[in-house]
Amino acid sequence: MEDQPNLEAIMGLIMYGGNAKSDAMEAIQAAKQGDFELADQKIADAEKSLTEAHHAQTGMLTQEAQGDHVQVTLLTVHSQDHLMTAIAFTDLAKEIIALYRRIDAE
């Protein structure tokens, strides 16, 4: 099926983006409890998921750049939205964890 590779990439973006956001939330909760080692591990897990998502996205971008146009569907847009939200959330989680560290050090 011709669309199957794109569907797999799209679902990868959704899955890895969701995993990253979930790990980032768990990192905030760990920092809130003062467990900065767990918070750091969860952020590392989130970043690993984001890297995997970027690999899926890069494949689609490469396909598009080579002239094999990717059909944009609601699912495609949703996957990109999911990824961008996860990136923003992970970045904010890092800032929140830094604030908890600062409070903990006082």
From TrEMBL:
<keyword id="KW-0762">Sugar transport</keyword>
<feature type="modified residue" description="Phosphohistidine; by HPr">
    <location>
        <position position="78"/>
    </location>
</feature>
<keyword id="KW-0808">Transferase</keyword>
<keyword id="KW-0598">Phosphotransferase system</keyword>
<dbReference type="InterPro" id="IPR003188">
    <property type="entry name" value="PTS_IIA_lac/cel"/>
</dbReference>
<keyword id="KW-0813">Transport</keyword>
<dbReference type="InterPro" id="IPR036542">
    <property type="entry name" value="PTS_IIA_lac/cel_sf"/>
</dbReference>
<dbReference type="Pfam" id="PF02255">
    <property type="entry name" value="PTS_IIA"/>
</dbReference>
<protein>
    <submittedName>
        <fullName>PTS system lactose/cellobiose-specific IIA component</fullName>
    </submittedName>
</protein>
